[in-house]
Design a protein that fits this description.
The protein has helices at residues 2-18, 23-27, 53-61, 76-85, 89-92, 114-117, 129-135, 169-180, 197-205, 210-232, 287-294, 337-342, 385-393; strands at 34-39, 63-65, 68-69, 140-143, 159-160, 190-195, 240-244, 250-251, 257-259, 269-273, 277-282, 301-305, 324-328, 333-335, 349-350, 364-367, 375-377, 380-381. The chain is an alpha/beta fold. It has two domains: 27-249 and 355-410, 3-Layer(aba) Sandwich (Alkaline Phosphatase, subunit A), CATH 3.40.720.10; 257-346, Gyrase A, domain 2 (2-Layer Sandwich). A hairpin with a 3-residue loop joins strand 10 (269-273) and strand 11. The chain is globular. The protein starts with a helix and ends in a 21-residue tail after the last helix.
């Protein structure tokens, strides 16, 4: 018996030393699975159109915010990373969809640049929730969430996929449901699902178009497939579901373009990225000339030095933000004649505007054993979602800009 006790003791010591099984898995039960769904470009008031009965029923049966305020700028990559890290873009380093970094001179970050999107140097300033979950003993399955293709801190999530816009929404749902079919030891505790077509159609046809309304119906069908799959697995009452969007959408027009090349000689400055929010770097010897032109009053845009932006934007200190920024007024966009000619068709829906605009508002809907039922809570910032997600997973969050007290009332017990 003494020899057997010694053997067990040595075995336990070796197990503790190797560290392959995290402590929480030895001492605690797994949390209820958490499914985070993002519908890119789903404006908060789309829910009022009566075209999304599945999503509306989920909101009615659970809890929803009046709306969720995106981080500035109201763009896709900055806000998805804000949701999953709790860090505002100025702190996470994902300050725009297109950006440069003097410490990464060999690359320009852009949505279409796969090499840059998969390069962890762009993402390492903030830690996504799946990395924190991994450190604390939980598996994650990440379906196309922006940032998941880069090995942050040297690692990917346990399950992830390279983004493929041709991979249908139904196929994405089936992949997620497949992860939930895995044995308990490997099944992800955190799962994310990213749906992008509402944003794509909103850009192409505008937020008030019949095509957009049709796509709302299509996406609702995808969510119905997801919920039916959960119900078939007996998980409908056992999983916490959070549905969010990253930003809204605003109607624009080719008649509402501010042509920067008509105001600013190309010898004065270099444009980092055009759009609703345009970043500009003065060329050597033309800083004062460029500022004199841009900081003057303009009829449909306003420009600032980066550190002089309104404080409520929480934006302007990161080295990746260009020295000068111009923000278009409601319904306008900033471009050049060459850029307009190169990018056709014209996007008649846009985002990136002041994040206080009602048209930029996002959704927050949650349902499951952890959440209140039949409830509506006041608006909150999207960075507040991160500490809520960490709480649901029972893990210690990384330092973040969120405020758990703002979302505590979404929970059944708080």
């Amino acid at each position: 018996m003494a020899a057997w006790k010694s053997f067990v003791l040595i075995g336990c010591m070796l197990l503790a030393a190797c560290g392959r099984i995290p402590e929480r898995q030895l001492t605690e039960s797994r949390p209820a699975p958490l499914l985070l769904v993002s519908i890119d470009g789903f404006r908060a008031d789309y829910l009022d159109r009566g075209l999304t009965p599945t999503l509306s029923a989920l909101a009615e049966g659970g809890v929803r915010a009046e709306y969720m305020r995106p981080s500035f700028p109201s763009l896709t990559f900055p806000n998805h990373y804000a949701l999953i890290t709790g860090m505002r873009p100025d702190h996470s380093g994902i300050v725009a969809n297109t950006m440069e970094d003097p410490r990464i001179p060999d690359q320009k970050f852009a949505l279409w640049n796969r090499e840059a999107v998969q390069d962890p140097r762009w993402w390492n300033a903030a830690t996504p929730l799946w990395t924190t979950a991994q450190r604390q003993g939980l598996n994650s399955g990440i379906m196309f969430w922006p940032g998941s293709e880069a090995p942050v801190d040297g690692k990917h999530a346990e399950f992830w996929s390279t983004y493929d816009k041709q991979f249908s929404g139904n196929s994405r749902v089936d992949r997620v449901l497949g992860w939930l079919d895995l044995p308990d030891a490997t099944r992800p505790s955190l799962i994310t699902l990213y749906l992008d077509t509402v944003d794509v159609i909103g850009h192409r046809f505008g937020p008030d178009s019949p095509e957009l309304n049709h796509e709302l119906d299509e996406v609702d069908g995808i969510l119905r497939r997801l919920l039916d799959g959960l119900r078939a697995r007996g998980l409908q009452e056992a999983i916490n579901i959070v549905v969010v969007s990253d930003h809204g959408m605003m109607a624009t027009s080719p008649d509402r373009v501010i042509y920067l090349d008509e105001l600013l000689p190309e010898t004065y400055a270099r444009v980092i990225s055009y759009g609703v929010l345009t970043g500009i770097e003065p060329l050597r010897g033309h800083g004062r000339d460029t500022e004199a032109i841009l900081l003057a009053k303009h009829p449909h845009m306003r420009c600032w030095r980066k550190r002089e932006l309104p404080a409520r934007f929480h934006y302007g200190s990161n080295r990746r933000i260009p020295p000068l920024l111009c923000l278009a007024d409601r319904g306008w966009t900033i471009s050049s004649h060459d850029a307009i000619q190169a990018k056709k068709p014209f996007s008649v829906g846009q985002h990136g505007y002041d994040n206080d605009f009602p048209e930029m508002r996002a959704i927050f809907i949650a349902s499951g054993p952890a959440f209140r039922r039949h409830s509506v809570v006041p608006p909150f910032d999207n960075v507040d979602v991160y500490p809520l997600l960490a709480h649901l997973l029972g893990i210690k969050p990384e330092p973040n800009d969120g405020d758990f007290s703002k979302v505590r009332d979404t929970l059944a017990t708080h």
